[in-house]
Inverse folding.
């Protein structure tokens, strides 16, 4: 349990440091937040496409397996 808490604190500290870096680089926390939101949105779209491709691959594989029997 203690290890999980330490890991959570370390991740939060890294996130905070990244936000401070972006705020200094881009001129404010609002801009830094906007950048993070944009990157999270892009990652979500990429993940959605990957899930769709995986589903299509599973469907093709099951269709081939059903055709062999």
């Amino acid at each position: 349990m203690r290890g999980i808490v330490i890991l959570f604190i370390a991740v939060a500290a890294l996130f905070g440091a990244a936000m401070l870096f972006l705020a200094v680089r881009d001129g404010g926390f609002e801009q830094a937040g906007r950048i993070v939101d944009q990157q999270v949105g892009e990652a979500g779209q990429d993940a959605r496409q990957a899930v769709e491709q995986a589903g299509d691959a599973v469907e093709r594989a099951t269709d081939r397996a059903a055709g062999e029997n």
About this structure: Helices lie at 2-26, 29-68. DSSP finds two helices and no strands in the chain. The radius of gyration is 20 Å. Residues 6 and 12 are 10 Å apart (CA to CA).
